[in-house]
Design a protein that fits this description.
Blueprint lengths: L1 E10 L9 E9 L3 E5 L6 H8 L7 E6 L7 H8 E4 L11 H9 L6 H14 L15 H13 L5 E5 L7 H16 L3 E5 L3 H7 L2 E6 L2 E5 L6 E7 L5 H8 L4 E5 L2 E6 L2 H12 L5 E7 L1 H13 L6
Parallel strand pairs: 3-7, 3-8, 5-6, 6-7
Antiparallel strand pairs: 1-2, 1-4, 8-9, 10-12, 10-13, 11-12
Helix pairs in contact: 3-4, 5-6
The structure holds adenosine-5'-diphosphate and magnesium ion.
Length: about 300
């Protein structure tokens, strides 16, 4: 089932001569993760505001796939949460006080409220700072508090606007691991980021925004690439062995490049190498093609940062 379908969406801010978004079409299935990437000013936050019901499209539609009888506003209020780019908590209140305040807006019984606070404290690993004033938290903990507040209502659909910007590696790891867990629990996630590798790791679908227009990236074109440089040119016997693997492999002198589309394929390749006597000089495994695709796309569209 679709979590939402966006059709021919356009959004124009009042008095603005150019639309912030135009011709956007996205269909996201329930339980999937959509990565929205694009430079500053490309329309990512605007799109999340529309998906959160904070802005109304100038034209086009957003339809949520649900079969209860809720009105759109009620559905969004109950099931959708946005983790905004800005901090959305009270700096003078402690972490626990913030959570207690925001959970009181969710309409739970007092027992349920207490349980929800405990769950999000644990999920976002905020227990040890729960009595600290929010304004004294480090950047990473502030991001986690922002996320915890959004999770209080146990949303089915979660939007995150650049949740890892300015975040230390530990908090980033916590946030990304939590997103994976939420996805495994069947939540639908929309996630904006500048970090392509991060987006590719967790997302099922990637949309690149550029000056308000969308480029749709098939993840198949963004396979990982394994490049190995050997100490000597490969023998014919080895070339034969490599070409018998069910992978797309290119060999040139002492260098082998393989397109890898699953962890199993990587292991197959490594298993073959581990049985060989070949000396490896250099090995590189990365999602270069997505980065390359992104840069090419941006260059072709002559983007400037706003
Ligand atoms: P991103 O999140 O990708 O950085 P935004 O959605 O914030 O991009 O902005 C998209 C475009 O809309 C930009 O050109 C920005 O200047 C413009 N914009 C954003 N907010 C407003 C606003 N409140 N009023 C007018 N223009 C805005
Ligand atoms: Mg933004």
């Amino acid at each position: 089932m679709s979590a939402f379908i966006i059709t021919d969406l356009e959004y124009r801010y009042a008095k603005s001569s150019v639309p912030a978004l135009q011709g956007i079409n996205i269909n996201l299935d329930t339980g999937q993760c959509l990565g929205l990437i694009g430079p500053n000013g490309s329309g990512k936050s605007t799109l999340l505001s529309i998906l959160s019901g904070l802005l109304t499209p100038t034209s086009g539609t957003v339809q949520f796939g649900h079969n209860d009888n809720l009105t759109l506003a009620k559905f969004v209020q109950k099931n959708v949460a946005l983790v905004p780019q800005e901090y959305a908590f009270y700096p003078k209140l402690s972490v626990a006080q913030n959570l207690q305040y925001f959970v009181s807006l969710c309409g739970f019984s007092s027992n349920e409220s207490q349980t929800r606070v405990e769950i999000v404290l644990r999920q976002c690993q905020l227990q040890q700072v729960s009595s600290q004033k929010a304004k004294f938290l480090s950047g990473g903990y502030k991001r986690r508090l922002n996320l915890a507040i959004a999770l209080l209502k146990d949303p089915q659909i979660l939007y995150l606007d650049e949740p890892t910007v300015g975040v230390d590696p530990i908090s980033r790891g916590t946030i990304l691991a939590l997103l994976s867990t939420l996805k495994n629990q069947g939540k639908t996630i929309v996630y904006t980021s500048h970090l392509l590798t991060e987006v590719q790791d967790i997302c099922d679908q990637i949309v690149m925004l550029n000056q308000g227009k969308a480029g749709y990236l098939s993840l198949n074109t963004a396979q990982k690439c394994l490049t190995i440089e050997f100490a000597q040119a490969l023998s014919l016997a080895w070339l034969k062995q490599l070409s018998s693997l069910p992978l797309k492999i290119e060999c040139e002198d002492n260098r082998v490049t393989a397109n890898i589309s699953s962890p199993e394929e990587l292991l197959t390749m490594l298993a073959l190498l581990s049985g060989s006597q070949l000396e490896i000089l250099n090995m590189h495994y990365d999602q270069t093609s997505l980065t390359q695709y992104y840069l090419n796309h941006m260059e072709n569209n002559d983007t400037s940062e706003h």
